[in-house]
Every structure is written in structure tokens, then in C-alpha cells.
Amino acid sequence: MTTVRTVDYHTAGEPFRIVDTAAPGMPPVPGDTVAERCATAIGPGGSGTAPRRGALDDVRRLLVQEPRGHAGMYGGFVVPPDDDGAHFGVLFWHKDGWSTACGHGTMALGAWAVDSGRVAAPDDGDVPVRIDVPAGRVTATVHRGGGRTTGVTFRNVPARVGARKVPVATSLGLTEADIAHAGACYASVRARDLGLDVTPAALPSLVRAGQEVRAALATHPAAWHPGGPLLSGVYGVILYEELPDTPFGPHQRNVTVFADGQVDRSPCGSGTSTRLALLAEDGRLGPGEDLLNESVTGTVFTGRMLEGGVTEVTGAAYRTGEHVFVVDRYDALGAGFLL
Predict the structure, then answer these.
(1) Which of 151, 188, 228, 248 could share a disulfide with 143, CB 3.0–4.6 Å?
(2) Residues with catalytic annotation?
(3) What are the CA-CA distances from residue 21 to residues 35, 156, 242 (Å)?
């Protein structure tokens, strides 16, 4: 009987399932760096959304597929860091494969590291949790008050704009996409240019449009990252709408469609970083100003632009449970299925 232990969090509604690969029974993850371990997990000839089957990918599928998971599940395997400068590393995964960055997951990991005592923290004050991810080193600053975690600020790798106003044909008409990188590559599209509102009722149309945009930009040169193929390619499509500015800066609502049609329940942490870079280039986000970024579920991240393309995104993460998943060798469903 196979056994896998997890600790689950959610950040602004988006799940994050944490598995420590140092636990007994977990398969080895070869590699000298987190990026190398990610490439190993994907396997030779595979890609982030089309991994080759391996031992670690078998565990991923077990945790995302029903009846133990669902099509919207997300998580990470905790692995050793690149060096002593970070507390640990992580390999991010979802129902379709692997990703190189994840803001909501980084916030959940920061909260988990402090809540579990892995990283010491005061009852009141802030503590940085440094995490190596395939895209580089990021920091989750955990905010504490009254002996509990009250929020997390995620500092991402530098964001950069790849291309603006790229024409894209969809079944809903012609639109324009802005492409930017912030650990992963995202294309931003104004939802109302396609006649859509960012609401739960419009999700089927938003998902279809997101998939069409992603497919259309699959080979666009602006989606290429100088770090190589692991960091290249449009990972997610952000369909956004403008809301009235707050006294502190812009206010937007978005749904992020990533991988093979998965919907981010949060405002998307690394996606928010790309929105910040685009707003700053447009002159709409100045020093000391914040972006209030809402998700399709109504949850909120607050983001700000620092020097050198560095962004910070603040949200809240909460533990939702601890699990011991098993696979009985007599169970005909095995690792499960996806609908």
C-alpha cells in the first residue's frame, strides 16, 4: 500500500498541497539545483505540461486526480535548496504537469514553514523565508501578530515585459495580448475586448478564450526566455477588467487560465507580478502606489513595483488540513482519474 503525507493550505482560495520529499517512501529527486530537479521530474523529451511518466510524476498524479484531488488542485514538492542561502527548494505542480514559479504557492510555503516551526519566527513581527524555485530564488516574508501568521508578502524574481499589443485571433474575435515574464510567462488580454466580464458565470467562455490565446502564442518569440526552454512558453493567460482606482493606485479583476485550462481561484501571484510590470511601463503605477488585484472569486492580492523590475505581492494563506493518502494495491482505480 502506497502512503503519501501532505499538509494543505489555500492562498486567496487557490489550493496548495505540500509534500516533503524527505519523508519516508518518497522517490529520490536527482539534481544539483532546483531547476535541475524540475527538469528531472519532467523527464527527457517532456515539457511542463506534458511530462514523461516517472516516480515523482506518479505521486503528482495521485495527489491531483480524483478521488484524492481534483482538476483544480495545485501543490509543491519540498526539496533541498540550491545552497545554504535558502531555507528549502520547491517543485511546483498542477493537474497537467509542472511550473517554474507560483506566487500563491510561495506564500503558502512561507506560512507553512513558520507555522510548522521549520523556520523560527517571533509572535509579533516579520520573518523572511527564502525559497529556491525553478525560476530562481524568491522570498516569502511572513507577517506575525499575536502569535499567529496574519499575512505573507511574496518577493518575486525580476519581471520584464516581452511584447505589447500582439494581435490574436479567437473564436470571440480579434484581441491584443501583452506578454510579460515573472518567473513564468503570462499573456494579458482585456476581457471586454472579447465581450466578456470577469465573473463566475462567464468562466466557460473565459477558459475557452484563454486556451485559444495560449495556443495562438505558443511559438511567439516574446514567450522565449533567455534562461532556456524550461522558462519559455506562455504558461498562463490573464483575462482582466478595469475597476475604479483606489486612493492607493489601480484596481483590477482577473481570471488566470493556465496549463491546459486550469483556473486560478486566487488573483495569481506571479501573474500579478506581470500585471505590475505592464502597469508600470504604461505609467499607471508609480512609486509608492499599489495594485489592488481581485480574483474571479473576489479574493484580493495587493502588489507593488520596486526597483529593477522586482515586485512584491501580499496576500493571506491558511492551513486547510493534513492528509495521509493511500493507494490500496487491490483498488482498481489506482491513482485515480480526472474529469
Answers:
(1) 151
(2) 102
(3) 16, 24, 42
